[in-house]
Write a structure and sequence with these properties.
19% strand, alpha+beta, four-stranded antiparallel β-sheet, four-stranded mixed β-sheet
Length: 472
């Protein structure tokens, strides 16, 4: 067993500088504290011994080869926007940033793809595609995330209902393995059954199997028009029951989200972002994209008629970019609003069958309240991914909060499993959900996970202690 890992020395620091550059390496107290954690410091704040910003795959390869030979752990970091404690140096060692590897290559129109390095930002990749009249659909909430981070966590987002997840848009990957070897997983082809599908295994592996150095992404023709509908209902149950009705229509929605009135009020009160629809205890937000105005109008008309037929108080159509933006600004402001409305936050992002959304949300509220915690569920009801946000009040001590959230999470994950759901829909396991994984998936599955990890990383140096833990 490689643990405990080697503590780095001046000799190690000198080698990393020799294969990169003196001005891109920081050691010890020189390292900025922002690199100790991701967006969820609750899931761990761990200082690396060395922080390096790499510029190309050869530097990545040289560092990994050295780390492999010398038993030094390495964690790859993108923009640091993760929500599972994944990009943290739990065992010290090297924090390797790929944010300087941010080139975006010209769009390949014949293959309708775009190739980029892992440090390119999602918003820049989307903009590069749009400039060529094409569309990169995956749209997680954090647009300043790196594309490599999106791929390695299989990021989802609101538009997954129609377009799918990041995995559905990755054609091929170039990556460096823990021993420094450079590998290509698949190529720029539409289909491939050549051996095991390692590419899809790497996607969503949370930086535990390899380090991405280049990725080629599928693009689509850009939709020419879009419309957002807001359907207010008298109860959450009615709102959730509308989801299968929308999905049964002959028009595929781009996004389906739900918000309860209490959460809307939090955003309006703390951020001043106002939802134009004031009726209802819960609202369903439905977006449609289309390639023609006629197609869009047909979709909107069918959805509006279905909503009113199934108990909606109204169906408000945000048919201009400004109106739609005001609706999505409220949805996008949820996390910021909750941070302003509470002392601390904890979240699980379970995914359940769509038919169980209302049952899960009602039970989740009972569970959290039984432990003295205010809870605000919201999320992507089009795919059953419910973000169960727990909010700490000023009256709770640190110990009370820690105990109550742990008890709530234990019950919430058990509830998701009972309903046929999964532990995480899009945020991943990382360090934050590690202790709950084996109970959820079972010992045999954990052994499979460990076998996969060892096949890639027999010395356990790449992002150790995330997703699975060997060093107990």
């Amino acid at each position: 067993m490689p643990y405990p890992y080697k503590k780095m020395t001046e000799e190690d620091f000198a080698y990393i500088r020799s294969v990169t550059s003196e001005d891109r390496v920081w050691v010890g107290d020189e390292i900025a504290r922002e690199f100790y954690r991701d967006e969820m410091p609750e899931y761990g704040v761990f200082p690396p011994e060395l922080y390096v910003e790499v510029e190309n795959r050869d530097e990545v390869s040289a560092i990994m080869k050295y780390a492999y030979e010398n038993n030094i752990p390495v964690v790859c970091r993108g923009a640091g926007t993760g929500l599972a404690g994944g990009a943290t140096c739990k065992y010290g060692g090297i924090m390797l940033s790929v944010m300087r590897m941010n080139r975006i290559f010209p769009v390949d129109h014949k293959n309708q793809t775009i190739t980029c390095e892992p440090g390119a930002l999602l918003l820049d990749v989307q903009a590069a595609a749009a400039a060529e009249g094409l569309f990169y659909p995956p749209d997680p909430g954090e647009k300043t995330a790196s594309i490599g981070g999106n791929v390695i966590t299989n990021a989802g987002g609101m538009k997954a209902v129609r377009y799918g997840l990041t995995r559905d848009f990755v054609r091929c990957i170039e990556a460096v393995l823990p021993d420094g070897s450079i590998m290509n997983f698949s190529s720029n082809v539409v289909k491939n059954t050549t051996g095991y599908d390692i590419k899809d295994l790497v996607i969503g592996s949370e930086g535990t199997l390899c380090i991405l150095t280049q990725v080629t992404l599928k693009l689509l023709p850009a939709p020419t028009c879009s419309c957002t509908l807001v359907m207010p209902f008298g109860s959450l149950e009615e709102c959730a029951d509308m989801v299968p009705e929308v999905l049964a229509l002959p028009f595929i929605p781009t996004a389906i989200e739900f918000l309860e009135r209490e959460l809307i009020d939090i955003v309006e009160r703390n951020l001043g972002k106002l939802l134009p629809v004031k009726q209802g205890e819960a609202v369903l937000i439905v977006m449609y994209d289309a390639s023609s105005r006629q197609e869009l109008d047909s979709a909107v008309e069918a959805a509006a008629e279905a909503a009113l037929a199934h108990g909606a108080i109204d169906c408000c159509i945000a048919n201009t970019p400004e109106r739609a933006a005001s609706v999505w600004a409220v949805r996008g402001g949820i996390l910021e609003g909750m941070k302003a409305d509470s002392v601390a936050q904890e979240e699980c992002d379970v995914v359940v069958p769509r038919a169980c959304i209302a049952e899960y949300v009602k039970a989740a509220k009972r569970i959290a309240l039984s432990h003295g915690i205010r809870v605000e569920p919201c999320g992507h009801c089009g795919d059953g991914n419910i973000h169960t946000e727990m909010l700490r009040g000023p009256e709770m001590s640190d110990e009370e909060w820690k105990s109550a959230t742990h008890a709530s999470l234990t019950e919430l994950y058990a509830l998701s499993k009972k309903l046929g759901g999964q532990l995480s829909g899009e945020h991943g396991i990382g360090n934050g959900r590690l202790e709950f994984l084996e109970e959820f998936v079972g010992e045999r599955m954990i052994r499979l996970y460990k076998s996969i990890k060892l096949a890639f990383d027999d010395r356990l140096i790449l992002n150790p202690g995330k997703v699975i833990e060997f060093n107990k």
